[in-house]
TrEMBL record:
Keywords from the named record: Membrane, Transmembrane, Transmembrane helix
Protein name, entry field: Prenyltransferase
Parts of the chain that traverse the membrane: 7-25, 76-95, 101-120, 154-173, 194-213, 219-236
Residue runs in coiled coils: none
Record organism: Aquirufa aurantiipilula
Keyword set includes Transmembrane helix: yes
Classification lineage: Bacteria, Pseudomonadati, Bacteroidota, Cytophagia, Cytophagales
UniProt keyword annotation of Membrane present: yes
Length: 264
């Protein structure tokens, strides 16, 4: 449990979940696993982004939870990790497909714009804009090594939308709880309506995809992640303390791979 706790404090649980969904998307779309360089570049990028996010929070005086406090106490170590991530990520790009590199540069530009808008308070003026942009960047990034290879169809887009809705639900429910701590009634009611809509749309798409596709087991990670997030949202007594399990929910593709392995 101590390892899980430390992994959560430095956002490694997010990295593990991202890599799990990257492999899952590769499997269902390409019937293959991502290369080591594709996995390494994504892991370095995601971990680096989350660590930089915490640094920006601290620069803005937004020390909100134990992750911010832990990383503030180990600021030098975090900076060393960021340098190492930059080096490993840079080396991994030498072995990536050129199209993926261009895709990654585009996402990098989006991330830079996101940080600038966030730092100067742009998101304060548009409700849920930060969560929408974060979920969009995550969805594009986690499937980057798959998206540029596949032939797009309506069903491919809908599956990507489902992933976006899952991530948006995750971000939204924590934003809701943070507003509840502050006591902003207007923001609380707004987020409750947004989350209800997101969950309703996700369920509608999920049921539609189950009817369309024969291999229904492929949607197990979506179902498990959604169920865990709903449980935390509606039934967890200490929702912010359940954040670790909310992040680990994205490791659900490992259950899909276990099923595939033992069913052969």
């Amino acid at each position: 449990m101590r390892f899980i706790k430390i992994a959560h404090l430095v956002s490694l649980d997010v990295v593990l979940g991202t890599m799990a969904f990257q492999a899952f998307l590769h499997e269902i779309f390409l019937n293959d696993m991502p290369s080591f360089s594709e996995q390494l570049s994504l892991a370095c990028a995601v971990w680096g982004i989350y660590l930089v996010d915490r640094i920006i929070d601290r620069k803005k005086g937004m020390v909100q939870d134990e992750r911010h406090i832990f990383q503030s106490q180990h600021a030098i170590t975090i900076k060393i990790i960021l340098v190492l991530l930059g080096l490993m990520g840079g080396v991994s790009t030498l072995f990536l497909d050129q199209h993926l590199i261009y895709f990654g540069l585009g996402l990098g530009a989006m991330m830079l714009i996101y940080w600038i808008l966030w730092f100067y308070g742009f998101f304060n003026h548009l409700s849920s804009s930060k969560e929408i942009l974060t979920a969009l960047i995550y969805t594009m990034g986690v499937g980057a090594s798959s998206w540029y290879r596949i032939s797009w169809s309506v069903w491919t887009v809908l599956l990507a939308v489902m992933l976006f809705l899952l991530v948006f639900q995750n971000l939204g429910m924590y934003s809701l709880w943070e507003w509840e701590e502050v006591g902003q009634l207007k923001s609380i009611q707004s987020w409750k309506r947004i989350l209800l809509g997101v969950e309703g749309i996700f369920l509608l798409l999920f049921v539609s995809m189950l009817f369309y596709f024969d291999e229904k087991i492929a949607f197990m990670p979506f179902a498990i992640t959604f169920a865990i997030q709903c449980w935390i949202h509606y039934f967890s007594k200490n929702k912010l303390a359940s954040r670790t399990w909310g992040e680990l929910a994205y490791c659900s593709p490992f259950l899909y791979f276990a099923y595939e392995f033992f069913s052969k």
